[in-house]
Amino acid sequence: MSRAPFALWRWERLWNDKAVIFNGFVTTLLVSLLALALAMAIGIVFGMLGTSEKKPLRAVNRVYVEFFQNIPLLVQVFFIYNAFPLLGFRWPVFTIGVVGVGIYHGAYVAEVIRAGIRSIPKGQGDAARSQGFGYIQTMAYVILPQTIKIILPPLTNQAVNLIKNTSVLATLSGLDLMYRADSWASQGTLSYGPAYVAAGALYFLICFPLATWARRYERRIKEREHLQLSEAAAEEMMLMAEEML
Amino acid sequence: MIKMEHVNKSFGKTQVLKDVSLVVNEGEKVVILGPSGAGKSTAIRCVNGLELPTSGAVYLDGTALTAKNRTQLVRRHCAMVFQQFNLYPHMTALKNVTLALTKLQHMTKAEAAEVAGECLETVGLADKAQSLPSQLSGGQQQRVAIARALATRRKILLFDEPTSALDPETVGEVLSVMLRLSHEHGITMIIVTHEMGFAKQAADRIVFMDGGEITAEDNPDAFFNNPPNERVQQFLSKVLY
Fold first, then answer.
1. What is the ipTM of this complex?
2. Which residues on B lie below 8 Å from A137 (Cβ)?
3. Is A42 inside any structural domain?
4. In this predicted model, what pLDDT tens digit does every residue of B16-48 receive, in sequence order?
5. Which domain range does residue A144 map to?
6. A74: in domain
7. d(Cα A32, Cα B72) in Å, to the nearest integer?
8. How many CB atoms lie within 10 A of CB A80?
9. Nearest-by-Cβ selection for A133 from B49, B79, B104
């Protein structure tokens, strides 16, 4: 048998064991979906805090966002995996994946939501409050629905990053796509080449269409609404962009 | 009854309202006139709690507005029409009107649609119920906004320069709707405007503001024919020609 890293027989072995890889793919999708749901929930709450009139609430938003954005995901996940048990929390790796990736990306989603809320003209909140809607109702019925068009592209990009980042689970024997591919190769015929190519292809299969869709959607919106965008909103978004840079 | 008592309001270091006291009785139509930056908008925004006084107090039917109770109080008493219409752009005209009815007054969808239909009829836009704000002219949008304010059947209607952002051709259609409303005895109206003709016809009382203060108050006849002070005279000579 050829020892070439991409020899045909290695691909045949991989094909025969495709169920193993597929299993990992399903796990990756599940972790991604649940982590995305968690990131959205966290992002909406902390994004709203970030636009509050009350300084302490804005401070809570800043602390959360800066903390989770500026520490590597790998460190956070290792912390949950190795340090949490000492505190009495022993979670399955699947849960660690969902929680770790979810709270990490929640910080990014919060920034997206915050920018979205701030791009909505102030008169919208005035109108809702003048009708007697409370803060949560104003957000739920009036402000957040209007942000969707604006935040969908950056949110989709966050989803793409999130899906890719679930691969940190491989370092914790997470049974995800990357782990399955890696362990299949290391415990068998050392066919790392085909295993990694297959894993990469499956990540690409999900992420590329999402990223492409987001880019097209964004371009379409910009073309259509370029002229309608109020000066105030445009200025607001520029300020946000500057802040992010 | 609306009562503003020694209301002061500052934004940062800028004092926008200086010791404003004003009583508006039930059913009364009060027009607030004055140059730009006089604090007129801030004054009526204090009436429905969009702004809270830095000092002094605003009472609606005897209850002082506070940060805690303003949502409830406003829900019971006030509706507002804005200069920039502020319709919800993601909802049809009908939905703009029904939102508060279904979510705050707990009407069924059908009940709310019926009330909204009547109100859109009142402003002459029954046929635009399914249009989005972006498909309507400024005047039409403002009339939807008036229908939205009417639908909740609140006794106090606040108008913050409702025609200032409109094309000249569509000002009339909005003013005529407002004029009709001014004949309804049960509704209290406070209107900030630069439309002198409307003020003459609709107002029971004119309040003149300048530099954050109320500097004159009179019935429209006296106010326009016999200006109460020199500043008012000067103002009127510039806006009336």
1. 0.93
2. 103
3. yes
4. 999 999 999 999 999 999 999 999 999 999 999
5. 15-207
6. yes
7. 42
8. 20
9. B104
